[in-house]
Amino acid sequence: MSTRLYGSLARIADFRNSNFDVTPLLRPDWATGDYIETEVVGTPTPLYRIEDRSGHMVRVEPGDWVVGALGDRKATLEGVGSWRDISPDGRMHALTSAGLLGLYTSLSQLLPPPLELEYRGHLCRRGRKLRMSDFAMRSDTHAFNVPTVLLVGTSMSAGKTTAGRRVCKELDRAGLFVVGAKLTGAGRYRDILSFLKTGATRVFDFVDAGLPSTAVPEDEFRAAIRPLLGHIDGLSPDFLVAEAGASPLEPYNGAAIIDELGHAIVCTILCASDPYAVVGVEKAFGLKPDLVTGPATQTAAAVELVQRLSGVRGINVIDPAAKEAFRRSLVRRLGLQPGDHSASVISSAPKR
Fold it and tell me: Where are the beta strands (DSSP E) in 113-246?
């Protein structure tokens, strides 16, 4: 008997093994965000793993069934693929371990062969296909005024999640109510769960808004993300620590989310792959960060070069010796009262 595993893109849905039908649909009826069931095929590699609805990684074998959602991925360092490229015989790949499903058309040669899957059918109820948008977060208002620490990168794997964990930890130590969010990128739950483990009281991402990834048209992205921002605003946190996946120049709507957050951004931390990438993002996007971290700050020479090229201070947040410098920088930028970690928000943050 086959084992059915739900990828973490299905965590917003109410799926149980008996409350839906699996019905094959013709290709013209497929769309981004559709929930489908697939069967694992091919020869297992280290990528034959699926992130379940709790964020745990589970090994899968040929014959297992995987529930995920159709979507697109456009990752600079790993791979590019889309559900639109799925082969006529229904062969496809897991574009992320969360169950983002499509066919890779470009894949890094540094990676092992991806998880191969075969279409079994769409998840349906009463003859109607089920989509991520059916379970998306709703909000009565789209207002957003939460003071926001924004984390952006020069590329994927530039240290955004690591920096976000550090910010959450420092704000939690200050006794503040912190919400963590990943607002652009490709679906994967464990990154945002790490914010929850390091100080955020609540965490959200674009999956809660009904998107498998944010590689969608800008108007669709804005319409989906606004109810999520409105919901976060309604929680009245002291700060939102928001990660924008990839970089603002990549096709994940990074520029759109920065525009949506607007005046609420009180601190921007740029996570850079190297010192020259800092200048590239500044010039190409017009973004002047308050702080630089990531691989571009691994050594004293790199930090010095960041300062000389961009005029922005660099701090290596994974260096234990830099913890106090990072804390002081955050306290100063966010307008917190320094001392015995009993900080309070003062005039530099937007008024609620």
Answer: 116-125, 128-129, 148-153, 178-184, 202-205, 239-244
203: which DSSP letter?
E
| Beta-ladder partners of 242 | 150, 181
Domains and CATH numbers, the chain: 4-135 (no CATH), 148-334 (3.40.50.300)
pTM for this model (two decimals): 0.89
**Taking Cα atoms as reference points, which of 193, 190, 165 lies closest to residue 49?**
190
pLDDT digit string, tens, across residues 35-50: 999 999 999 999 999 9
Residues 110-154 have pLDDT tens digits of 999 999 999 999 999 999 999 999 999 998 888 899 999 999 887
SS (H, E, C) 295-344: HHHCCHHHHHHHHHHHCCCECCCCCHHHHHHHHHHHHHHHCECCCCCCCC
Q: Which two tokens stand for residue 238?
A: 């002291």
Whole-number CA gyration radius for the chain? 21
